[in-house]
Amino acid sequence: MKTLFKNIKGLLQVRQESETLIKGKAMQDLPIINNAWLLVEDDIIADFGEMQSIPQKLERDLTIDASGKMMLPSWVDSHTHLVYAGNREQEFVDRIKGITYEEIAKKGGGIVNSAKKLQETSEEQLYKESLVRLEEVIRLGTGAIEIKSGYGLTTEAELKMLRVIKRLKQAYPISIKATFLGAHALPPKFKNDREGYISHIIEDMLPKIAEEKLADYIDIFCEDGYFTIKDTERILDAGNNYGLQGKIHVNQFNAIGGIKTGVDYNCLSVDHLEVLTDEDLKALKTGTTIPVSLPSCSLFLSIPYTPARKIIDADLPLALATDYNPGSTPSGNMNLVLSLACIKMNMTPEEAINAATVNAAHAMGLEKTHGSITRGKKANLILTKKVPSYGFLPYAFGSNHIDKILLGGKTIL
Ligand SMILES: N=CN[C@@H](CCC(=O)O)C(=O)O
Ligand SMILES: [Zn+2]
Hints:
Layout: E1 2-12, E2 32-41, E3 44-50, E4 62-65, E5 69-73, E6 75-77, H1 89-96, H2 101-106, H3 111-119, H4 123-139, E7 142-148, H5 155-171, E8 175-183, H6 194-211, E9 217-222, H7 229-241, E10 245-250, H8 258-264, E11 269-272, H9 278-285, E12 290-293, H10 295-301, H11 308-313, E13 319-320, H12 334-345, H13 349-356, H14 358-362, E14 381-386, H15 392-395, E15 402-407, E16 410-411
Parallel strand pairs: 1-4, 1-5, 6-7, 7-8, 8-9, 9-10, 10-11, 11-12, 12-13
Antiparallel strand pairs: 1-2, 2-3, 5-14, 14-15, 15-16
This protein binds N-(iminomethyl)-L-glutamic acid and zinc ion.
Protein name: Imidazolonepropionase
Family: Belongs to the metallo-dependent hydrolases superfamily. HutI family.
Pathway: Amino-acid degradation; L-histidine degradation into L-glutamate; N-formimidoyl-L-glutamate from L-histidine: step 3/3
């Protein structure tokens, strides 16, 4: 099946080859072809160019006129917890009334609250609740997504979450990577035995997860009151033994050295970074670990935003993701993330789009197939409604600018 899109007002993020990470000043550059055509063949971007040089005889089954519309690669969301049970609306109201996220967690709410709900939910029910959210983010333009476990906190419940992620992978055309986050919080049973819980993760959970090949990456919440640097090292070492690279939660509330650990262990990404010291920045400069910012978490929890300018101005790359989860970010909307990055983190539209496409694809190991308009890459595409410019996408926040979604070359919307 060949589909031709013609008269595209702007074809964004056009790269000749799979790009390396985009860093520093280069993030200002968003390659675009104005008045373009693009040919999708089966599930692949086959060819594209300027309308004035469109081949005379271009074989196709379908032609779509995209006059006035922009086309760009689908968003890549490299950090989510989309599989969860129920919600935490009550904690939302508690926070409105003045109780902090940390206080709620200390009282047995937070992650442990979600874990209790999930343990009591059947795999079938969990699958049904999760697919609603997955379908929603697909409609919002996400074409690749990482999903973590971490609301199970028992072997059985962690396996249940990862099996649900596997079922979603099989059932939907969106590209999915799974991350094992057993070390998300201490379950009540191990309240006074953090090391015992880490051993449980390493000795009981990990071998089973590896045997069923349920995870692509490993994660830990490295934070005061959750897991220490030493725990992080143990988890990352154990993950490495099973070939699982780290993508870790660090510096959400405190800088305890997790970024340096992540870089030293060659993690693929270090995520959150709402708090960032000069030492953290220096550590990032010594390796290839990708910093990932989650601005809708900052919005929802009223905590600082990742200092994006500091990171980009230090000639580093930055990726953006949603962190979709029931406690700190009940939203999987990458369009909102884009707007927040511009409005709250002083990123330009070009930087934000690079961070949500090419760099985000790197942050989930999909840079060869996703994140840019490149011949041979997967035809996961967004066609916008008629808009005056690409800057209008983050500028006119809260509106839905999407006309069509393509996943694997097929029109989904
Ligand atoms: N910080 C750790 N984990 C999630 C939130 C977990 C929750 O509150 O349920 C996050 O990335 O924000
Ligand atoms: Zn998270």
